[in-house]
C-alpha cells in the first residue's frame, strides 16, 4: 500500500477543516494508534468564544498542557511500536498563541513554552488540509457544538492566513497540502481512496493535492 513507511502522521489545518474526521479514517484504515485533541476537556473554550480577550490566556495554556501530555503519551506509544495518526502538530501551538494573546500575555506564554522544553517527535508526514473560510464556517456549523456558534468569521479568516504562513515556512517534515473544497472526506469513500493513493505516491518533501 506504500503507507507503512509513515510511522507518525499528523493531520493539520484550521478549525473545522476536517482534521479529526480524516485522522479517524486514516487510523481505522491503517489500524494505527490515534491521538486526538480533546476540546471538550478545555473548560475555558465556551467562555473564550464569548469573550476572547478575557479567556485567551487560560484557554491557550490549557491547550498547551493538554498537548504536552499527549506528546508524552506518544513516547509511550513509540515504545510499543506501530503507526500513529494525530490531529494536531505540537509546533503549531504558538500559532494560536500569537493570534489570540496580547503582547504581555504572549511573552508569559513564550516563557512557559520554553521552560517546558518539550521534545515532540517529528512526524514522517504532515497532511495540511485547506478550505475557504466560508466552507470552514459551514463545516463548523454542521457539527453543531453550541458554543462554536459564536466563533467570529474574522477569527477564522485570520487563523486561515496564519496557517498558510506557518506552512509556507515549515520544513521540519514532508507536507502534503490538500485542497478539501471538492474532496468529501466525511462521507465519500472514493475521495478517501484518492487521497490514500496520493499519500502512498508521495515522492518529495512538499506536494499538493487538488481534486479537479
Ligand atoms: N472534506 C470534507 N468535506 C465535507 N465535510 C467535511 C469534510 N471533512 C470534515 N467534514 C465535516 O466538517 C465538520 C468538521 O470536521 P472536524 O470536526 O473533523 O474538523 P476539525 O478540523 O477536526 O475541527 P477542530 O479544529 O475544531 O478540531 C464535521 O461535521 C465533518 O463531518
Automatic annotation (TrEMBL):
What's an example of a GO molecular-function annotation for this chain? Answer: kinase activity
Main enzyme class = transferase
One Pfam family per UniProt: dNK
> In the Enzyme Commission scheme, what number(s) does this protein have?
2.7.1.-
Q: Which residues form the Deoxynucleoside kinase domain?
A: 9-199
Q: Which InterPro entries match?
A: DCK/DGK, Deoxyribonucleoside_kinase, DNK_dom, P-loop_NTPase
Keywords tagged on the record = Kinase, Transferase
Domain of life per record: Bacteria
Which regions span the lipid bilayer? none
Tell whether Kinase is among the UniProt keywords: yes
Q: Does the keyword Ribosomal protein apply?
A: no
Q: Under which name does UniProt file this protein?
A: Deoxynucleoside kinase
Species assigned in the record:
Chitinimonas viridis
